Protein: Gfo/Idh/MocA family oxidoreductase
Organism: Rariglobus hedericola
Amino acid sequence: MPSPKKSSVRIAIIGTGGMAANHAKRFKEVPGCTLVAAVDVSRERVEKFAADHGIPATFLSLDELLKGAEFDAVSIVTPDPFHAAQSIQCLKAGKHVLCEKPLALNHSDASKMVAAAQKAGVINMVNLSYRDWPAIQAVAKVIAAGRIGEIRHVEANYLQSWLPSKIWGDWRTTPAWLWRLSTKHGSRGVLGDVGVHIVDFATFPAGPVKNVYCKLKTFDKAPGNIVGEYTLDANDSAVMTVEFANGALGTIHTTRWSGGHANRLFLKISGTKGSIEIDSERSTTSYKFCAGHDLDKAQWITIDTKPTPNNYARFIKSIRTGKQDQPDFARGAEVQKVLDACITSDAKGRPINV
Ligand SMILES: NC(=O)c1ccc[n+]([C@@H]2O[C@H](COP(=O)([O-])OP(=O)(O)OC[C@H]3O[C@@H](n4cnc5c(N)ncnc54)[C@H](O)[C@@H]3O)[C@@H](O)[C@H]2O)c1
């Protein structure tokens, strides 16, 4: 495995739209990490992005980048349909890869990415970004330590409101929102966009899904459900009933229609000895806990957590140490398998084993 010195990890960012600014900011916070190149199919966007973030080289394609720059790792921040091919191309070139979520459009492509990463023997991570929250890292440890006993019940939701509102601008005129509404543009709807996060958020502490029964819905949004080149046919809401491998039951749901909630993740896990809860609208650095004597009074305490490193810092640390951290591509593929089962379940109208 290529092993750059601690002082220098050179990153190229591929895709310079909305989320890429976050990648640039976070990588610049990691000592010794340098942004050396940026790539976008839009010359205007890539040049502005490079100027904004002090990046010396720009390219209009991944091929040009691989021929024209020296770097150790890539951060792939292009729309979902490009993740698989671009990751595999970079892995074949021996580059470490941090890829945006969802890892791919389906489990078959995600599995090819896992195989390519294993063959390349480099660091691979998928940016399931809510792993950055100290509360979820702490909750996973509390559950693994058995402090709520055997898990019986899980409630999880991810609520956004950009369809009935202009909270993040007008989706009708914004390509970054319109491609998310169109299957032709590679979107798997709210399920693929943020359902991927809430499935990871719930199953990271609660364990794998055994089977899922899912209903997806696409609501009317525009005359003929067409805006310019975009056919608005990707799902807006997803509701899942889940049985976990450990026998627990749960519900996981997500929508873009939840006025009043800009971007809320909620998770409650209940076991034989107690319950634990994260509500991002309350805090992402503390969680609520009810166990022991508090169970008889239904009384909750709030527990503050210690800071934890974000995915970007952990990706760089993995490159330096050669020790693969989570969430890796295999984890991204596991979550993808649940999403595929949701789509099959919705189409067939019955539960599907994962
Ligand atoms: N982890 C998170 O919380 C999070 C949050 C937002 C977005 N994302 C993910 O990040 C990715 C990008 O989302 P966004 O909101 O920044 O989208 P965006 O539409 O704002 O930006 C995408 C950029 O990629 C460029 N692009 C398109 N095809 C390309 C190609 N073949 N090669 C190079 N550049 C190309 C576009 O020109 C655009 O500048 C998506 O996969 C999305 O799911 C993740």
User: Anything to note?
Assistant: The chain has a mean pLDDT of 97. Residues 14-20, 39-42, 45, 77-80, 82, 100-101, 127, 129, 176, 193 surround nicotinamide-adenine-dinucleotide (CB under 6 Å). Residues 79 and 186 are 8 Å apart (CA to CA).
